[in-house]
């Protein structure tokens, strides 16, 4: 059996960590993201999901685990920003990704899901369709996607943007007999375990592990809220 055929099985029941940083933020450099990737692999991450060609290359060179690659591209002609085109997918494969994540939603798009899956298969990588509904998941599976992930739940105009993971979608995917990866707004270990209880093949956690600005904001806001409700006195001098 080829490595790519074995790959999804090797990730089954594990934690994958997404290492991404928005352009212009302090960690947005391939060396920084590769260092974070190495650190989370030491902590037990079974694979790394990362964005941008230079980051995929740097992470690939730095860790021995599988790399899920994508590019985020803001285009005037489409809402689709996760690996919108066939050329993007080919470039990510050349950068060394084992799995290529792409937008698998039903929105108008430069290349169809069928075309994206075919191009990714041709590149030798596995495809991961980022979906937001059961119908999109079903269409991606029919198109031959190797994995479907709940990544886009809450990020399309027709899905609810809850604070936490979309457990409702996971439950519905399970009921429909569709294998899925749980991704998006998983902030606690309990939430990660609940994803597995609902049938997730593996979970992808990003912000809660690798975005220190967001993690710090959560602590700072929570502490500021408490301070406003019950002000703490200063230690008497
Ligand atoms: C919607 C979208 O563009 N998601 C992106 C996909 O690669 C990333 O920004 C997320 O960090 C990733 O999906 C992990 O999710 P979270 O950071 O919530 O654990």
From TrEMBL:
First-level EC class: isomerase
Keyword field: Carbohydrate metabolism, Isomerase
EC number of the protein: 5.1.3.9
Gene Ontology biological process: carbohydrate metabolic process; N-acetylmannosamine catabolic process; N-acetylneuraminate catabolic process
Record's catalysed reaction(s): an N-acyl-D-glucosamine 6-phosphate = an N-acyl-D-mannosamine 6-phosphate
Gene3D superfamilies, per database record: Aldolase class I
Highest taxon of source: Bacteria
Biological or metabolic pathway of the protein: Amino-sugar metabolism; N-acetylneuraminate degradation; D-fructose 6-phosphate from N-acetylneuraminate: step 3/5
InterPro entries: Aldolase_TIM (IPR013785), NanE (IPR007260), RibuloseP-bd_barrel (IPR011060)
One CC-aspect GO term: cytosol
Pfam families attached to this UniProt entry: NanE
SUPFAM superfamilies (UniProt xref): Ribulose-phoshate binding barrel
PANTHER family the UniProt entry points to: N-ACETYLMANNOSAMINE-6-PHOSPHATE 2-EPIMERASE-RELATED (PTHR36204)
Functional note: Converts N-acetylmannosamine-6-phosphate (ManNAc-6-P) to N-acetylglucosamine-6-phosphate (GlcNAc-6-P).
Recorded family membership: Belongs to the NanE family.
Name of the protein: Putative N-acetylmannosamine-6-phosphate 2-epimerase
Taxonomic path: Bacteria, Pseudomonadati, Pseudomonadota, Alphaproteobacteria, Hyphomicrobiales
